[in-house]
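Duplicate of #3305? Posting structure anyway:
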């Protein structure tokens, strides 16, 4: 699993005209050509699943991608139908990772997902939640329910509560962690606008604020992958660079925290 993936929220909820699709095609091509694999979507993201499926088909790139999406409805029958529709939109027979979006009717869907995994329709099972208030529930589910392979949650330099509330549990259970909203939808950049990157960031091969924010998360041993969403290839190139070179050690991570907390 590559450590930098691609989120599709908002950015891939796009039309079919070439002017709209071209930059998204460039983003997917760049991700895969640089060794990235994970593309994360959801029925909740408008047309993102269909756009992702179309682009992967156009690029003949399905074997190179790790497709993650979600089930976001209630009831077993409706859930299974929604997941089948996602597979059709994504143009794949097998979805690499199917996640229960925001824990909606999670007990029902977990039963379906276990069966679908046994039948080969999905490869991995995950649960997701993006709010900090739900972290205790995520931890409880990971502790009590066997067979969960991934947990996806909001984690950034500005939202560090997962470090104590969920990540230790995930590590102890062998559950892979996907960090969403690692850049807080751009809010982190607004905080540092006009400020130079500290010189010591070069000690861990960091050349931009985006790389500093992402490397901080990637240096957490429990984290498997971060999925900043973007439809801009220049931004993706910057994000992908965070997956190369050195990561901050414990002392350097503390420097990053102190820099952020000082405002």
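Output from current build:
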């Amino acid at each position: 699993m590559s450590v930098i993936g691609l989120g599709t929220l908002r950015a891939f909820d796009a039309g079919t005209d070439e002017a709209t699709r071209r930059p998204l095609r460039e983003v997917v091509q760049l991700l895969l050509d640089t060794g990235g694999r994970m593309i994360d979507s959801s029925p909740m993201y408008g047309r993102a699943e269909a756009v992702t499926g179309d682009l992967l088909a156009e690029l003949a790139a399905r074997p190179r991608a790790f497709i993650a999406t979600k089930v976001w409805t209630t009831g077993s029958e409706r859930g299974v139908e929604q997941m089948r529709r996602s597979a059709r939109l994504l143009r794949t027979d097998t979805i690499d990772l199917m996640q229960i979006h925001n824990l909606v009717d999670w007990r029902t869907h977990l039963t379906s997902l276990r069966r679908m995994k046994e039948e080969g329709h999905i490869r991995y099972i995950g649960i997701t939640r993006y709010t900090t208030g739900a972290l205790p529930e995520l931890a409880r589910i990971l502790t009590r329910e066997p067979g969960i392979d991934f947990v996806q949650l909001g984690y950034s330099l500005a939202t560090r509560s997962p470090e104590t509330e969920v990540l230790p549990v995930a590590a102890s259970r062998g559950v892979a962690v996907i960090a969403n909203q690692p850049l807080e939808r751009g809010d982190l950049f607004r905080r540092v606008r006009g400020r130079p990157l500290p010189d010591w960031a070069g000690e861990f091969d960091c050349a931009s604020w985006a790389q500093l924010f992402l490397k901080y998360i990637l240096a957490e041993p429990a984290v498997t992958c971060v999925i900043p969403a973007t439809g801009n290839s220049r931004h993706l190139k910057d994000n992908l660079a965070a997956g190369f070179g050195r990561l901050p050690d414990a002392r350097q991570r503390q420097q990053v925290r102190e820099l952020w907390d000082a405002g």
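Confirmed duplicate; merging threads. The chain has eleven helices and eight strands. Strands lie at 6-7, 38-40, 66-71, 95-100, 122-129, 150-154, 176-180, 223-226.
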